[in-house]
Amino acid sequence: MLTLDGLSKTYKTGDTALSDVTLSVPKGQIIGLIGPSGAGKSTLIRCINRLVEPTSGKIMLGDVNLASLGKSDLRQQRRRIGMIFQEYALVERLTVMENVLSGRLGYVPFWRSFLRRFPATDIQRAYQLLDRVGLMEHADKRADALSGGQRQRVGIARALAQGPELLLVDEPTASLDPKTSRQIMRLLTEICSERGLPAIVNIHDVPLAQQFMQRIVGLRAGRVVFDGPPDMLTREALTTIYGEEDWNAMRQGDEEQAEAEAEARGRLAVLAQ
Amino acid sequence: MTEITTYKQVWSYRTPRGRLLAWAGWLALVALFVWCWQIMTERTIWAFVQDAPRQAADIGSRMLPPRWPYLSELWAPLWDTLNIATLGTIGGVFMAVPVAFLAARNTTPSVAILRPIALFIIVASRSINSLIWALLLVAIIGPGLLAGIIAISLRSIGFIGKLLYEAIEETDTKQIEAVSATGATGLQVLNYGIVPQIMPAFWGITVFRWDINIRESTILGLVGAGGLGLKLQGSLNTLAWSQVSVILLLILATVVVSEWISAKVRHALI
């Protein structure tokens, strides 16, 4: 279980990205973090594994306060937190297998990682994960030879290879098309419920968040302004998070898109016969 | 049709002040050229210049035809030259890689102390020509191949170090961030996050420098550091122009081949 207590971040430029965020994520819960650009979603996620140093506050993962750790202890604790990135952030020139195995770096000594001689159990686990995300036959391809959706699957496998207790997911679908986005979100939520993994997912796409998340947290200017189940995300709630906008029109737009997709699928099915 | 009358039809790229400055700039440039021309011609002995075509034709006729049998004496020095270039490049790479990691802003362990030192090493190596390095080293460790190899590698440190540290600084931070987020140590982040990203640049730079080093090592013999240059100096001193032309043609052929190899390798990498 993750508990944030009074987490704040002020950048050197004087911009306050987060102020006094208090939040608790129980085991197995998937939280969608929504909010306008610059609301601090990305900063919040990066403060948790301290890719960004928080200015003040507590980050309790289990009974460890991540905010107060020294460099080497932090490294040990980072193994417990898997992270999935917006533009996949795979090491492009390494193979898919190396990318997945890089999730084990925190557990193996340098010489093993340097010679690519990982323990047999790590390799077995990596194959198992590649099979789970449906990329078994791509193991020895270079990461930059894969499509966007496939790369994000590798990103998921890398995060899971760590054997994490928490997933931080930063805009997992921002560079993907609508169909692949939904596949990736479905895969993520399935995997989280299989393993009882809690996850915090930054997401721009409100309908997508409502479709897949169990709980929505709305950030505005670094503060939590909404916290509740997706069906409580009313027009008033969206206005508090994003400001005034014609929400019904946006929903209509999304329905139109879904209809268009269904129609296209139908046409493809006809063609395939 | 409605006539547009309220908008101006005139637009100019420069402001009047900018136009004036541009004209002044061109005028200054012309004046500088005239002045330089005057200084240059003042010190020229025109008799020699008028004589130039005749002299060139004279040397040309002495160079032709090349004395091809002399080629048999050149294979050993050519082999020396290739060795100087190749071993010098390898030595340079070994010294340049750590310097590059110390000089790159994102990998240096200390911005305040080690980075300036690394940058100084790079500048010092780059500012001194291979021929001058060789001159110094022949004086220190005596004439021969070793002086040539060390001269080439000392000169290569700066070139490889500078290009490599720029490549390190241009690496994609997201990939590095992702590797550090797994709990990897600093060395592992270097090995998995940074090294794969700079490998194409590294091989490209190394082969490019090897290609340059072949060219540079052909003349190192002029100061006694071994290789083809030694033969070139000997032939020039004895006014054996038909041998000079053989050596020049051989250097040309070698450079063409090395450039072809380097282009092929770089093409394969990118």
From TrEMBL, chain A:
User: Which InterPro entries does the protein's record reference?
Assistant: AAA+_ATPase (IPR003593), ABC_transporter-like_ATP-bd (IPR003439), ABC_transporter-like_CS (IPR017871), ABC_transpr_PhnC (IPR012693), MetN_ABC_transporter-like (IPR050086), P-loop_NTPase (IPR027417)
Q: Name one GO molecular function term.
A: ABC-type phosphonate transporter activity
Transmembrane segments annotated in the record for this chain: none
Q: What highest taxon heads this organism's lineage?
A: Bacteria
GO CC field: membrane
Keywords for this protein: ATP-binding, Cell membrane, Membrane, Nucleotide-binding, Translocase, Transport
Q: Does the keyword ATP-binding apply?
A: yes
Per the database record, which ranges form the ABC transporter domain?
A: 2-246
Q: Which PANTHER family match?
A: AMINO ACID IMPORT ATP-BINDING PROTEIN, PHOSPHONATES IMPORT ATP-BINDING PROTEIN PHNC
Protein name, as recorded: Phosphonate ABC transporter ATP-binding protein
What is the organism field in this record?
Pararhodobacter oceanensis
From TrEMBL, chain B:
Q: Where in the cell is it found?
A: Cell membrane
| An example Gene Ontology molecular-function term | ABC-type phosphonate transporter activity
Superkingdom per UniProt = Bacteria
Q: Fetch the Pfam families from UniProt.
A: BPD_transp_1 (PF00528)
**Has UniProt tagged this entry with the keyword Membrane?**
yes
Task: Please classify the protein's predominant subcellular localization into one broad category.
Answer: membrane
InterPro entries documented for this protein: MetI-like (IPR000515), MetI-like_sf (IPR035906), PhnE/PtxC (IPR005769)
Does the entry feature the keyword Protein biosynthesis, yes or no? no
What are the GO cellular component annotations? plasma membrane
Segments crossing the lipid bilayer: 20-40, 84-104, 111-128, 134-154, 240-261
Q: Which PROSITE patterns match?
A: ABC_TM1
How would you describe this protein's topology in the membrane? Answer: Multi-pass membrane protein
Which positions fall inside the ABC transmembrane type-1 domain? 78-262
Keywords from the UniProt entry: Cell membrane, Membrane, Transmembrane, Transmembrane helix, Transport
Which family is it part of? Belongs to the binding-protein-dependent transport system permease family.
Q: Which NCBIfam families match?
A: PhnE (TIGR01097)
Q: What is this protein called?
A: Phosphonate ABC transporter, permease protein PhnE
Provenance organism: Pararhodobacter oceanensis
